[in-house]
Amino acid sequence: KKIKQLHKDEVLILNKIIADHQIQKNEEINDLNANIDKLRCNLETKEHELQIKENRWSEVDKVLVEYTRNDIGLRDKLTAIPHICDDLTTQRRITTVISENEELKNQVEEIQSQLTDYRSNMSEIE
Length: 126
What we know:
It is a single chain. The protein is an all-alpha fold. Helix content is 87%, strand content 0%. It is built from three helices and no strands. The protein has helices at 2-70, 72-79, 94-125. It starts with a helix and ends with a helix. 0% of the residues are buried.
């Protein structure tokens, strides 16, 4: 009988340990979900702020385009700066600029690779 009671006590202790671990696991899951919600909220806030800034820059672009229509000197100065006076009807957004930059980086890498190949071919010919 003592052995049965000992086993029952061990089972109770193990069940208590399992329950404690489950409670701790649930608390960790709740903490992680709270962090995810906080990150989502922060991301949405930042996206909203970016949209506001993008709209402001769009307005600045409109004003610049209007002024450059009448001032050739200003137009020349602004056209020397890449992507300042883009056509406003192109629906150009930040994601477009990022993808364009990636494409340009890839093109630069490809051209550098071609130049390296050309140099090695030139040195072989000489």
